[in-house]
Amino acid sequence: MIRKVLLVIALVIVVFSLIGCNTVQGLGDDIKWTGEKAAEIVD
Fold it and tell me: Residue ranges per domain, the chain?
């Protein structure tokens, strides 16, 4: 029983870690895109 609970907790941690990485990567892409567009406007 304890083993199953630990497995579920481990899976939840892995899923949230992957979601977090994708969110941070997406935010970085958005910031990069905004910077590129601002540079185009200035030029």
Answer: 14-43
Please give the model's pTM, rounded to 2 decimal places.
Answer: 0.50
3-state secondary structure labels for all residues of 2-41:
HHHHHHHHHHHHHHHHHHHHHHHHHHHHHHHHHHHHHHHH
Q: pLDDT tens digits, residue range 7-39?
A: 899 988 888 877 777 677 777 888 888 888 888
Q: Helix, strand, coil: what percent of the chain each, to 5?
A: 95, 0, 5
Nearest Cα neighbor of 16 from 24, 4, 28, 6 is 24
